[in-house]
From TrEMBL:
It catalyses: di-trans,octa-cis-undecaprenyl diphosphate + H2O = di-trans,octa-cis-undecaprenyl phosphate + phosphate + H(+). It is a multi-pass membrane protein. The lineage of its organism: Bacteria, Bacillati, Actinomycetota, Actinomycetes, Geodermatophilales. It holds the Pfam family BacA. One of its GO terms (molecular function) is undecaprenyl-diphosphatase activity. The chain crosses the membrane at residues 40-59, 87-104, 116-133, 189-207, 219-243, 255-275. This is Undecaprenyl-diphosphatase.
Length: 277
């Protein structure tokens, strides 16, 4: 991977990670369309460490409060009803599905699921689900009303993003809307829920890279680190913008974009302009 490629892909990762349009799909498509080839699941996971670092910075006060309350609740029964301690447990519970499914389908995630035809179908299909959820969701519930059942359902939706094109934020926000949460509440829990999953996946890929057990493209560390740093800076701005937008905006523009991209991708693969694998 060259330095210019790293700059472009870092920008793509930062711009798309938190929007419900699938960053992994965009990295896959931009790499293929530019003639660089698939940057690989390992590169994708490692650059996501950058965007997740943006989450840690943006929500640092919330995260610190949750961690402290959760640790105190481990030894003090009276603290177990604390909303922040409870949120800590809900993030752990919601992370279980993606950990289990990520380990179970690891080889497919790095190879089969990156087929551009699968990516295109996921972009279109899940955009329609998001549109439906945005129309029928009551949008009344806030995060303090989150239950263990809802946390698991959010987690299952997040796990579906193991397929590029689904979108981690899009999947979890969609589930939140179906469960009656406001757009902003669903997005905030989506960001918090992604922390253990994304950091775990990213550092696991770092470990596998050093042990030589990575499927697909090898990692060029200099450009990959540059892409990760760029993704951090851009992602921080996108988080702030998206949370402001969700106070008044709908997901319709993202739905239209996903459908157009997915159908265009299917057409380009169909006529042989892009290779699916």
């Amino acid at each position: 991977m060259g330095w210019f490629e790293a700059v472009v892909l870092g920008l793509v990762q930062g711009l798309t990670e938190f929007l419900p349009i699938s960053s992994s799909a965009h990295l896959r498509v931009v790499g293929e369309a530019s003639g660089w080839g698939d940057p690989g699941a390992a590169f994708t996971a490692i650059t996501q460490i950058g965007t997740e670092a943006a989450v840690l910075l943006y929500f640092r006060r919330d995260i610190a409060r949750i961690v402290v309350a959760w640790l105190r609740a481990l030894t003090d029964r009276s603290k177990r009803s604390d909303p922040d301690a409870r949120m800590g447990w809900l993030i752990i519970v919601g992370s279980i599905p993606i950990v289990l499914l990520g380990l179970l389908f690891q080889d497919d995630i790095e190879t089969t699921f990156r087929d551009l035809r699968i990516v295109a179908i996921a972009l279109v299909a899940f955009s329609l689900v998001l549109y439906w959820a945005d129309r029928v969701g009551r949008k009344r519930r806030e995060l303090h009303q989150l239950t263990v059942r809802d946390g698991l359902l959010f987690g299952l939706a997040q796990a579906m993003a193991l397929v590029p094109g689904v979108s981690r934020s899009g999947g979890t926000i969609t589930m939140g809307l179906f469960l009656g949460y406001t757009r902003a509440a669903a997005a905030r829990y989506s960001f918090l829920l992604a922390i253990p999953a994304v950091l775990g996946s990213g550092f696991f890929q770092v470990y596998e890279t050093f042990t030589g057990d990575v499927a697909g493209e090898t990692i060029s560390w200099g450009p990959t680190i540059l892409a990760t740093v760029i993704a951090f800076g851009v992602g921080l701005s996108v988080i702030a913008w998206l949370l402001r937008y969700l106070d008044r905006g709908t997901f319709t523009p993202f739905v239209v974009y996903r459908v157009v991209l997915g159908l265009s991708l299917l057409a380009l693969v169909g006529v042989g302009v892009l290779a699916p694998n």
